[in-house]
Write a structure and sequence with these properties.
The complex is a heterodimer of chains A (406) and B (138).
Chain A lengths: L9 E4 L1 H11 L4 E4 L6 H12 L6 E4 L3 H14 L3 E5 L1 H16 L4 E7 L13 H5 L6 E4 L3 H16 L7 E6 L8 E4 L3 H8 L15 E3 L8 H31 L6 E4 L6 E5 L3 H14 L4 E6 L1 E3 L3 H7 L5 E6 L9 H10 L7 E7 L8 H17 L7 E4 L7 E2 L1
Parallel strand pairs in A: 2-3, 2-4, 4-5, 5-7, 6-7, 11-12, 11-14, 14-15, 15-16
Antiparallel strand pairs in A: 1-8, 6-13, 10-12, 16-17
Helix pairs in contact in A: 1-2, 1-6, 3-4, 6-8, 9-12, 10-11
Chain B lengths: L13 E3 L34 E5 L9 H5 L5 E4 L2 E5 L9 H5 L7 E5 L4 H6 L17
The chains are: A alpha/beta (406), B alpha+beta (138).
């Protein structure tokens, strides 16, 4: 039996340490990993817990990220609680197996510490890796701070392993900005944390020798479409209610309240920015300052990126006149993903807000308060004009001539 | 197999081998196992085959080489005696014939439509091995 750790009520942890403790506390059976910056300390910390007797499960060092996720898939099919962590290029190498995990309906929790994808090679934070996984069938949570990276791990296990869900889940946190920034984190005791997630309940597990099962079968045109439809049905109908139930239960336990879509100062907002990760906290601060200057500014943070909360987004933006969609990933030949998703969420509604897209922060470039002031100022002009007064897609914080499209 | 709708089957890319629970399956003969419709055991792939192996028990020494080497478990053996071939699953690869050590071989490949009695009637006689003919196979 693994030793417990007596945590202080508030520990000074960075996002990686917080995630590492969460994995320890839920007593994961198998962590298979190939460490990569900036997610390395999650599995490094976990291996330390294992070496020091705080973990009963197995830690498997694999030959690559493709091998790490493959090992997680095997362990999950066998019937274990499974987790790993990665970033960037490592996530890219996992991509093929991510589709296997979700299609096989295996609950796995992946801590994705967001980092740019090269070339040029870059270890710093942006959301390129998060965006790369968005069609892979995984549930995607977004944490904006170490506290949230810690909390959302418990939510992720609880939802992912639910027998009505059985879909893998990613907990995103910003590389370095969250993963390596130590902050006060309110902790759960080992017992409370484990009890919140509960004992792992196997389903269709290969270790149930009385019910032999073949996982990862091949289907062609006669069955594949039905399997994918069933997967989409679970993602679209089961996941959001289960997350909401888990958020409610978590609030009762900790007092910390999470929402599918986080909204700040949105009740009477005329203009709003929508973003993810640490940018949400910066935007909130600037929105307050804009309000002091008479601009009714609000901020929407995406807490659950997949399944996309179409109805919740439409509801929160109902009375807004101009929205800035902040994408921290190069869209490479299109409007940013948030722009397209939000436009799709509003198109068939009565909300005719002016939408504009900002590409920012690639490769760890800072998003400053001054950037956000200029964005809010432009949004206010759009709201007053009732139409875009700027190009639809603009690059923010870029050196050289101003870059924009459409 | 019945083609169910998208909400009519178990989730995941998984199939069950048996209907219900099984115990001591290793000691249960295949014909007594509750194979499910989704087990490949219940599906015939006989039409994959263009040549078939036929078995002549007059020469068989029950060495079980064919049983061990068959990649599809299509050699039926009971109490270490060669009984015959499972033609629902045999793909006609010919490995059993290759590994048969008797002289003449107790298993030989024939065209799929070949009549078994006719094949047995024209089975080759014992060959006198000429050392100089061919290099020995491993």
């Amino acid at each position: 039996m693994a030793d417990t750790i007596e945590l202080r009520d508030i520990e000074v942890w960075d996002g990686n340490m917080a995630a590492s403790h969460a994995l320890r506390q839920v007593q994961v059976d198998v962590v298979a990993a190939y460490p990569i910056t900036p997610s390395t300390p999650i599995v490094e910390g976990y291996a330390g817990f294992k070496a020091n007797g705080y973990v009963d499960g197995e830690f498997v060092m694999t030959e690559s990220e493709h091998g790490a996720m493959s090992c997680c898939i095997g362990a999950a099919a066998a019937g274990g609680r499974v987790a790993t962590a990665t970033s960037s290029q490592g996530f890219a190498l996992m991509l093929e197996t991510l589709y296997s995990a979700s299609g096989m309906r295996l609950p796995i929790v992946l801590n994705l510490v967001n980092r740019a994808i090269g070339a040029p090679l870059n270890v710093n934070g942006d959301h390129s890796d998060m965006y790369m996984g968005r069609d892979s069938g995984w549930i995607q949570f977004g944490a904006y701070s170490p506290q949230e990276a810690y909390d959302l791990n418990f939510i992720a296990f609880k939802v992912s392993e639910d027998h009505d869900v059985r879909l893998p889940a990613i907990v995103n946190q910003d590389g370095f900005m969250t993963s390596h920034t130590a902050q006060g984190v309110h902790t759960l005791s080992d017992e409370a944390a484990f009890n919140f997630v509960g004992e792992y309940k196997p389903m269709n597990d290969m270790l149930d020798l009385d019910h032999p099962v073949t996982h990862g079968v091949q289907t062609e045109e006669d069955w594949h479409f039905e399997h994918k439809a069933r997967q989409q049905h679970a993602l679209m109908t089961a996941v959001i209610p289960k997350i909401e139930a888990a958020f409610d239960e978590f609030e009762k336990l900790t007092g910390r309240k999470y929402n599918i879509v986080e909204s700040y100062s949105m009740d009477d907002a005329e203009v709003a920015v929508i973003c993810m990760g640490t940018s949400v906290e910066t935007a909130r601060e600037v929105a307050e300052e804009m309000r002091a200057n008479g601009v009714k500014a609000g901020v929407v943070g995406i807490r659950v990126f997949r399944p996309w909360p179409l109805e919740q987004i439409a509801a929160v933006l109902k009375n807004v006149k101009a929205v800035g969609l902040l994408d921290r990933s190069s869209p490479h030949g299109a409007m940013g993903a948030l722009y397209n998703e939000v436009a799709g969420s509003l198109f068939n509604t009565d909300t005719k807000a002016v939408l504009t897209n900002y590409i920012y922060g690639l490769g760890g470039r800072d998003l400053t308060k001054a950037h956000l002031v200029s964005i809010f100022t432009e949004l206010k002009a759009n709201a007053d004009a009732g139409k875009p007064t700027t190009p639809l897609q603009q690059y923010i914080g870029l050196r050289g001539p101003k870059l924009s499209f459409f | 197999m019945e083609k169910k709708g998208w909400d009519g089957f178990e989730i995941g890319a998984m199939l069950r081998t048996f209907d219900g629970a099984v115990q001591d399956i290793a000691t249960t003969l295949p014909e007594n196992r509750p194979y499910s419709q989704s087990s490949s055991f219940t599906a015939s792939v006989a039409d994959w085959r263009i040549e078939k192996p036929l078995f002549n028990k007059d020469y068989c020494i029950d060495c079980q080489f064919c049983w061990i080497y068959c990649p599809d478990m299509s050699i039926i053996s009971r109490d270490k005696k060669m009984v015959g071939i499972d033609f629902d699953h045999c793909k006609g690869c010919g490995i059993c014939v290759q590994v048969c050590p008797t002289n003449p071989k107790s298993l030989l490949m024939f065209p799929e439509q070949k009549d078994e009695e006719a094949a047995l009637a024209e089975w080759p006689k014992k060959e006198k091995k000429d050392q100089s003919e061919e290099p020995k196979e491993d």
